[in-house]
Each structure stands twice: as structure tokens, then as C-alpha cells.
């Protein structure tokens, strides 16, 4: 239980520190990596579906508090994504930067796809432009930054932990 709480809280703190302090410093023309999704991917791949689900719910709930009109949407997207990635971790080839970067980029795209579809109320005009101009560059940048963070986590021995 202590490992579960410690791991989940560490990666939630990494998400908040990354989004509030590091992200504005490394922004390129308004595009910055999504540290909350990167930390959710690392948490889910390192600890499994249960910490991924709980961590995704907590991250999403805190993000939802800033947007009461869509309360619960971030929590739903991140909770589902955390469970899916945690269940997928035994099927992935660990240690390949291409696989890790693609997993992070696809996680960002999957989250943004669901979030933008619900936010735009399933209208094409309100969905396509933000998805193409914001989500795709953020997914690419997050994939690159995610590889670096996953390599650091692997170097520190975090990714080698098993249930």
C-alpha cells in the first residue's frame, strides 16, 4: 500500500511541477508538452492499472476544478487512459525509445480526441481545427519529452518495479 501511495503521489507531483514550472520555460511557439499525460503514462507503465486509474482520476479531477462547465471530463478521460495503459504494459516492448514516444503521443491524441469531441458537442468545425493545430503538435512534443522522462525513470529504477 505504501508503494502504491508513494508512486502515485510522486507522479502527480511531477505532473503539477512540470505543467506549472517547466512547461512555460520550454514552450516553442505556444506548444509545450503535456506533463500530466506524460506522468500518467509513466505511472501506468511502471505500476499497473490500479495506480494508473487512481492517478488519472486525481489528475483529471484537479484539472476539472478549473473548468466547472465540463466537470468530470478530464477525470473520465485520464482515468480510462490510466487503466488502459496499465493493462497494456505487459504487452509493450520496454526499453525502445520509439515505442515509448509513440505510446506517449498516442495517449495525448486519445485524450484530446475524446475531450475535444465532447467539448465541441460533436460538431466538425469545433473539433478539427483545435485537433490539427493544437493536439498534433502537443502530441509530438510530448512524445519527445516523454522519452526523456521515461529514460530518466528507467535510469532511477522506477520502471523496473513490478506488482
Q: How would you characterize the overall build of this protein?
A:
This protein has 163 residues and is mainly α. It has one domain: Orthogonal Bundle (Arp2/3 complex 21 kDa subunit ARPC3), CATH 1.10.1760. It has helices at residues 2-25, 35-47, 49-64, 73-88, 97-119, 124-155. Helix 2 runs antiparallel to helix 3. It is globular and about 45 Å long. The model has no long low-confidence stretch (mean pLDDT 88).
Beta-strand proportion: under 5%
**CATH 2nd-level architecture:** Orthogonal Bundle
Q: What number of structural domains do the residues give?
A: 1
CATH fold label: Arp2/3 complex 21 kDa subunit ARPC3
Question: Average pLDDT, to the nearest integer?
Answer: 88
Shape: globular
Query: Which ranges are low-confidence, i.e. pLDDT below 50, for 5 or more consecutive residues?
Result: none
Quickly name the level 1 CATH class.
Mainly Alpha
Radius of gyration: 15 Å
Helix-strand category: mainly alpha
Compute the number of helices.
Answer: 6
Sketch the topology as an H/E string, one letter per element: HHHHHH
Give the helix proportion (percent range): over 70%
Distance between the termini: 11 Å
- Please outline the major beta sheet: none
How many β-strand stretches?
0
How do the strands and helices of this protein lay out in sequence?
Layout: H1 2-25, H2 35-47, H3 49-64, H4 73-88, H5 97-119, H6 124-155
Helix pairs in contact: 1-2, 1-3, 2-3, 2-4, 2-6, 3-4, 4-5, 5-6
Short description:
The protein starts with a helix and ends in an 8-residue tail after the last helix. By secondary structure, the protein is an all-alpha fold. It has helices spanning 2-25, 35-47, 49-64, 73-88, 97-119, 124-155.
